[in-house]
Structure formats: C-alpha cells, structure tokens
Amino acid sequence: xxxxxxxxxxxxxxxxxxxxxxxxxxxxxxxxxxxxxxxxxxxxxxxxxxxxxxxxxxxxxxxxxxxxxxxxxxxxxxxxxxxxxxxxxxxxxxxxxxxxxxxxxxxxxxxxxx
Amino acid sequence: xxxxxxxxxxxxxxxxxxxxxxxxxxxxxxxxxxxxxxxxxxxxxxxxxxxxxxxxxxxxxxxxxxxxxxxxxxxxxxxxxxxxxxxxxxxxxxxxxxxxxxxxxxxxxxxx
Lengths: 114, 112
What we know:
The complex is a heterodimer.
Chain A: E1 4-7, E2 10-13, E3 19-25, E4 31-37, E5 43-49, E6 56-57, E7 65-66, E8 76-78, E9 87-94, E10 104-105, E11 109-113
Parallel strand pairs in A: 2-11
Antiparallel strand pairs in A: 1-3, 3-8, 4-5, 4-9, 5-6, 7-8, 9-10, 9-11
Chain B: E1 4-6, E2 11-14, E3 19-25, E4 32-38, E5 44-50, E6 55-57, E7 60-65, E8 70-75, E9 84-91, E10 100-102, E11 106-111
Parallel strand pairs in B: 2-11
Antiparallel strand pairs in B: 1-3, 3-8, 4-5, 4-9, 6-7, 7-8, 9-10, 9-11
C-alpha cells in the first residue's frame, strides 16, 4: 500500500483567495498526478509530473499551477479561487514500472469556493 | 462521445447474484486497461488490471476484446461490501508513462 497524503481534506474559502493543496508521498515514486472530479462525474487529469522539475498540463484545462521541487511533494496552487473551482482534487502517484503500475490515490481535497 | 463509456447504472442486485459491467473505449491505440473501485466520497482504488487473455481474481473476472474495444467485469456471488462505483480506466500513455482516462463509473448496489 502506497503512502500518499493530501491536506487539507476539506477546504471552504472565499472568492479571490490564494490556496495551495498539498500532496506528499513517501514511496519515492517519480510519477505524480493531479485529477479533478466533480460529483457523479469522471476524473479528469489536470497536471502530471515525470519527476523533479518536470510538470505538464493534463487533458482538462485548469487555472491551477503545480510544482515539483522534491520527489515526494507535488503541491497544486490556485492564485485566485473562484466558485467554478469547487470540486474534489485527487493526487496520485505511481512507481516507474511500466504501463500496468497502479495509481495510488490520496484521499482527496474537497474544495468549496464561496 | 466520451473516450471511455460505461452504463452509469445503478445496478441493484441481491446478495449472491452475478452481475456484469461493460465498458467501451474509442481510442484504438490504448495500451492497458484497468478496473478501479470508488466508494462514496472516497478515492479510487485499483481493483484489477485487465489482460488480453482475460483474468480472474477470486470472485472477479475481467475480459478485454481489443477488436471490439470492449472491456467487461463480472462479479460472482455479490457481497454487500461490493456496493461501490466501478470505474473502467484506459491508459493511452506512452510506454512507461500512464495517461489514464476514466469512465464515469457504474454504480452497484447489493442488497440483503
């Protein structure tokens, strides 16, 4: 079982605030991902990283940004939160063992922007 | 049309029943396939990978038909604890990197 942690678990914040969602994993996985999931909908990839100093945008356009300064840490930042950013954000990682390596997800951050 | 399509359900079945879920994908270059399970308000967890020859893990059997671009999951002897949403997941990333596309999921409710 991979150890991957997200904080905060729940966040309610006002419009215009800057927020950072934290994601850390202790397994030494090179590959990390951020997904966004609205209730009853599929997960959409918004950012991913091959390793330190590597970040790429995913399939779903997002106003968020990410950084990967350390292997274990992959934070996501919204410079100015809006109600349209209300969603669940799921961080995941996978070992570098080819296409059948499972994704290990954190327990998610439920963000509400009022 | 979505890249991965699933019947959203819900499938309501009694304990002990056998239930099957289907999934189709549109990208013929997709390389690997999975079923994930997601409980209400929780993160997805890998249930099983899907191999070309079909594979079984206890009460769960997964099958892949590349020609028809179709994946299935069969659950035998359903338990109450099987109640969850089952996500069909397709990897269209390059070798060594996963770029997973998730279906919206099929919801299963197992009743006593």
